[in-house]
Specification:
The structure holds 2 protein chains of 2 kinds.
Chain A: H1 15-33, H2 40-65, H3 71-110, H4 118-121, H5 134-139, H6 164-187, H7 191-222, H8 230-262, H9 272-297
Chain B: H1 10-13, H2 18-46, H3 57-92, H4 100-119, H5 147-174, H6 187-218, H7 232-266, H8 273-287, H9 302-314, H10 316-330, H11 339-362, H12 364-370, H13 374-404, E1 406-407, H14 410-436, H15 451-481, E2 483-484
């Protein structure tokens, strides 16, 4: 086992192979679920994975409290989290890049900028947000893809206070500040301050998700804006949806850190679990700023 | 951690040891290599003569698709990850990988992913049949229902690769022995550091591509459908933004391996070490900005064609620097030609041929003729097989005595090399000719004028395939009953930390890091 100055290499562990089993079941189950079969395999896999991850993190926390983690091992965790966030950034980059490609190139081309579009999509006019799809322009109501009736863009100054994205921006930006205040709290060993401000952050995260859900319900029920309403609905829901999923994960992470804070796991020298979650939180915040600019405002 | 490996199957299932995990990766990779090779044999058997003999066209499409997917994601990538697991801790003086449990998870995801992918053969609609590049709308509107399993299988592979790469980066940046500065790192470590960066950057892009497919197929989105305002060409952009760095992910670790073998058997240090490092980094950078040279025929604006053509040709510069460095390393060296060196020299020659045909393909106006012909197939098999497979085979011959403490049969190794070398060239060199003459790739039948070269190519393929069974035989025979060796240095010209360790390497090494002067 670990001695002073040497790197802690854990003994053999059953966790990885259980986690892999969970992931394998999730992949198999998701593949059959999307084809209309029952979701039980997927849910079983998710359950296996969730329990394994719980046990895994519990073990890592136990090892850390037992003092098995050298400074060098802690740096490995720091690198690990940092590069994980980088991979997440690249995942979002694909969707932002696709949005750019569609808006800057595809729609003008479909609208006949480079060549005539009379034979393919007669009458199609490129606009953004795209309210009339090429299919709809050419085929009217017989089209497979119908554009939305309304969109999520800036509604004008008179209605700004009813514009949910603005409130969500305010909430998420504030939550980045509150998580930072919590960080300064624990850095000064002020546990009370830490618990309070981290709790507020989690609360703001939940409020954000509720408002996001409200926005989606509004879109589906009153605006005719769905996943299948052409490329605007596609990019809108995929970008905000993946962001919302990441806010959900981030909120869960911060909530776990909050519970750990109540248990007294952190002090001014050792709070990496919290820090990693807070980096993730700042990351989803930055992504939101990109979304607010490119999905909601520049439309 | 003084004790040795656990007993029984639990050793492999629950291990956290980088050598065990490396071994599992290598065996898994070889199993996939045999499976992908079997698919290739089916393809070559069908193409032995014009007309349909053995399989139906639909099944032929499944063969080409699965051959590509299995070889790229199942054989080549895991082979180099296996070598990375074995060698990086030994070469930088680390006790293990930085995150040993996650390391085991990265491996064990793969059997699940490939079981899922292979199981599609036995499902309704058959296996994926849209080519390994799975272009939309072939992979969306016209795909068999099993495409969903393919999508989630790719997600699993991506998760495995990202975790493996995070582990490698953390290991290289955090676990080097005191005194081993970045510019003292062995080339294999350098190439893997950069490869891992590429993997973390582009595997999420692949995940994004298959996610868009999933949504288009099942949830009514229109990413790749012009009717809704999307574009099938968007798929190609996203795919090749992943796909082009991917080919460097495959070849950079091969460069690393060759940069160890050539100095060892030339008994000279590597010529131009720092230029090798910079060339590797330059290639990695360029790989992000050249992707659309795979798409010269989609109707890009002329400015795009020109940009991607010139940017692509730039890659020849750092790559040529590497080739010249290897040649300069050999120049006036005290050369001997054991099996790893034979493979390494063959690598330099054949990879260079693949590089030259790459420059031909990069010329946009000429590519109009070459695009989607067997010329492309010949080109990328010169870099994938003679590049990646030859170098990983060389690596196994080179380090096997170190790993097992037993020497392989040199004569059998050399025979195996020459059969591989000749078989490989008989298979793929004629494909340049039939490609230039206009034979399209991925077809189950062809016009009569291509018959002769196709038959020769098939004979070469069977020869090459048989040589791989000889390789398997030699490795198994070495492990079971090879001549024991105990010198720390198996090869007199070998340099590096791994050769300071006892042979065979103990289960745990460098528990206390060595100091590098």
């Amino acid at each position: 086992m670990s001695t002073e100055g040497s790197y802690y290499v854990p003994e053999s562990s059953k966790l990885p192979v259980f986690a892999a089993t969970g992931l394998g079941l999730i992949a198999l189950g998701a593949g059959s679920w999307v084809q209309g079969q029952s979701p039980w395999v997927f849910l079983a896999g998710a359950l296996v994975l969730a329990f394994t991850l719980y046990a895994w993190f519990a073990l890592v926390i136990k090892e850390n409290i037992a003092g098995m983690n050298s400074d060098q091992l802690k740096r490995s965790y720091v690198w690990g989290m940092g590069w994980f966030i980088f991979s997440e950034a690249m995942f979002f980059a694909v969707f932002f890049g696709s949005l750019y490609y569609i808006r800057a190139l595809v729609l003008p081309w479909l609208g006949g900028e480079a060549t005539e579009n009379e034979l393919l999509w007669a009458g199609f006019e490129p606009t953004w947000p795209l309210m009339v799809t090429p299919d709809q322009a050419a085929n009217g109501d017989a089209a497979q893809f119908l554009g939305p009736e309304q969109n999520m863009s800036f509604p004008g100054w008179d209605k700004i206070l009813h514009w949910l994205p603005l409130w969500n921006t305010i909430i998420l930006l504030s939550s980045s500040v509150t998580v930072h205040i919590a960080h300064t709290g624990i850095k000064n060993n002020d546990r009370k301050k830490f618990n309070l401000w981290l709790g507020i952050t989690v609360f703001l995260g939940i409020i954000f998700l509720i408002l996001q859900a409200e926005e989606y319900i509004e879109a589906y029920n009153h605006m005719g804006l769905t996943l299948s309403s052409g490329i605007y609905g596609t990019t809108f829901f995929m970008l905000t949806g993946f962001h919302g999923a990441h806010v959900t994960f981030g909120t869960i992470m911060l909530f776990v850190q909050w519970v750990r804070g109540l248990k007294g796991h952190f002090n001014d020298k050792d709070q990496f679990g919290f820090e990693a979650a807070s980096w993730y939180w700042h990351f989803v915040d930055v992504v939101w700023v990109g979304l607010f600019l490119f999905v909601y405002i520049l439309a | 951690m003084a004790h040795g490996p656990a007993k029984g199957i639990g050793r492999w299932l629950f291990t956290t040891n980088h050598k065990d995990i490396g071994t599992m990766y290598l065996w898994f990779s070889f199993a996939m290599f045999l499976m992908g090779g079997f698919f290739a044999m089916v393809i070559r058997a069908e193409l032995f003569q014009p007309g349909m003999q053995i399989v139906k066209p639909e099944f032929f499409n499944q063969m080409t698709t699965m051959h590509g997917l299995v070889m790229v994601f199942g054989a080549i990538m895991p082979a180099f990850v296996g070598l990375a697991n074995w060698m990086i801790p030994l070469q930088i003086g680390a006790p293990d990988m930085a995150l040993p449990r996650m390391n085991n998870l990265s491996f064990w995801i793969l059997p699940f992913a490939f079981t899922l992918l292979t199981a599609t053969f036995f499902m309704e609609g058959g296996a994926p049949n849209f080519g390994w590049t799975f272009y939309a709308p072939l992979s969306t509107t016209y795909a068999p229902p099993t495409v969903n399993y393919f999508i989630f299988g790719v997600h699993l592979m991506g998760a495995s690769s990202i975790m493996g790469s995070i582990n490698i980066i953390a290991t290289v940046l955090n676990m080097r022995a005191p005194g081993m500065t970045l510019m003292k790192m062995p080339m294999f470590v350098w190439t893997w550091l950069i490869t891992a960066f590429l993997l973390i950057a582009v595997m999420p892009v692949l995940a994004g591509a298959v996610t868009m497919m999933l949504m288009d197929i099942n949830f009514g989105t229109s990413f790749f459908n012009a009717a809704g305002g999307g574009d099938p060409v968007l798929f190609q952009h996203v795919f090749w933004f992943f796909g082009h760095p991917e080919v460097y992910i495959i070849i950079l670790p091969a460069f690393g391996v060759i940069s160890h073998i050539i100095p060892t058997f030339s008994r000279k240090p590597l010529f131009g070490y720092s230029s090798m490092v910079y060339a590797t980094a330059s290639i990695a950078f360029l790989s992000f900005i050249v992707w659309a040279h795979h798409m010269f025929l989609v109707g890009m604006p002329i400015g795009g064609e020109l940009y991607f053509m010139y940017a692509t040709m730039l890659i020849a510069v750092p790559t040529a620097a590497k080739v010249f460095n290897w040649i300069s390393t050999m120049f006036r060296g005290s050369l001997t030609f054991e099996t790893p060196m034979l493979y390494a020299v063959a690598f330099v020659i054949l990879f260079t041929i693949g590089g030259f045909t790459g420059i031909m393909l990069a010329i946009a106006p000429a590519d109009v003729q070459y695009h989607d012909t067997y010329f492309v197939v010949a080109h990328f098999h010169y870099v994938m097989v003679a590049g990646a497979i030859f170098s990983s085979t060389a690596a196994v011959y080179y380090w096997l005595p170190k790993w097992t403490g037993k020497m392989y049969n040199e004569t059998m190794g050399k025979v195996q090399f020459w059969i591989s070398f000749i078989g490989f060239n008989i298979t793929f060199f004629p494909q340049h000719f039939i490609g230039l003459a206009g034979m399209p790739r991925r077809y189950s039948d062809y016009a009569l004028q291509f018959s002769d070269w196709n038959m020769i190519s098939s004979i070469g393929a069977f020869t090459y395939g048989a040589a791989q069974l000889l390789f398997l035989f030699n490795v198994v025979r070495t492990i079971r009953s090879g001549t024991p060796v105990s010198e720390p240095k198996t090869w007199e010209g070998a340099e590096g930390l791994e050769w300071t360790l006892p042979t065979p390497v103990p289960y745990h090494t460098f528990s206390t890091p060595p100091t590098i002067k």
